[in-house]
Design brief:
Strands 16, 17, 18, 19 and 20 form a five-stranded antiparallel beta sheet that branches. A four-stranded antiparallel beta sheet has the order 1-27-26-25, with no helix packed on it. Strands 2-3-4-5 form a four-stranded antiparallel beta sheet, with no helix packed on it. The protein contains one helix and 27 strands. It has one helix at 2-11, and strands spanning 26-29, 35-40, 46-50, 55-59, 65-69, 75-80, 86-90, 94-98, 105-109, 111-112, 115-116, 123-125, 131-135, 150-154, 161-164, 170-175, 181-186, 191-199, 202-203, 207-211, 226-228, 234-238, 241-245, 251-255, 263-267, 273-278, 281-286.
Length: 297
Amino acid sequence: MLLMSLLGCLLGQDLISGIGPMGPVKKVAGGFAFTEGPASDGKGNLYFSDIPNGRIHRLDADGKISIFRSQSNKSNGLMVARDGSLLACEMGGAVVALSADGQNRTVLADQYNGKPFNAPNDLVIDGQDGIYFTDPMFGAKSPLPQVKTCVYYLPKAGKAVRLLDNLPNPNGVILSPDEKTLYVIPSSQKQMMAYPVETPGKLGVGRVFCELAQKDPQGNGGGDGLAVDIRGNLYITSGTGVQVYSQAGKMLGTLVFPEAPANCSFGGQANKTLYVTARTSLYQVELLVPGHRFAAP
């Protein structure tokens, strides 16, 4: 116990049993305007958005960062699809697929009931290549094109279906590793939600998965992005850091970063590196448990 405490002091972190961290938080790169949407392709590359600058960057296995796409329509959440394309939530109003070289853009969905989306924010791909995505108000036109902030499901080669319209700014979204639960992270309430997936694109009655710890005991701050490991633990970005919860909703601890985290994703050779986009920078920290990979080939 004393050794663990000493290690935690050296790392500037509380150690989370069975999770880590295994080393210090490292700053990969900085100087961006606002980073978001980290996504690994399972081949050593990591993609992330710089929203205000309208760019998507790529970090390769050798640590080199390059511009993957320079006209991103304020892309936010990203995820690599099974075919190698990069799916992106564009805050300009669309969910799109970008070719592996970043040159070609295909619109998958840009409206619901004949009206544009507000500002698609985050997404997750299921085993049927369907896409769950959130559509809050951040960066949207006023009045809101869709009036409400919602969660949608886009089946492969189909039209978007609205699933939820009763959450204040649904933001991060992810599935459990077995895809039986959809987690939705609102930004405007501290209660994080979980929904049983009855069939792809059909949800049961939701429940509160957990309540995020607050800097202010009277606060009601929500989360932003999230990741999940192979054990089903959730890593939720918040005002206090990356809060880690077991699949039962028990808080395990918080990973702290020099800047407030916006989103996170697993990557690296063993998929045990947690990459965190935090305001002007990209950070990484090594953990014990690998992340779960969605849409793996």
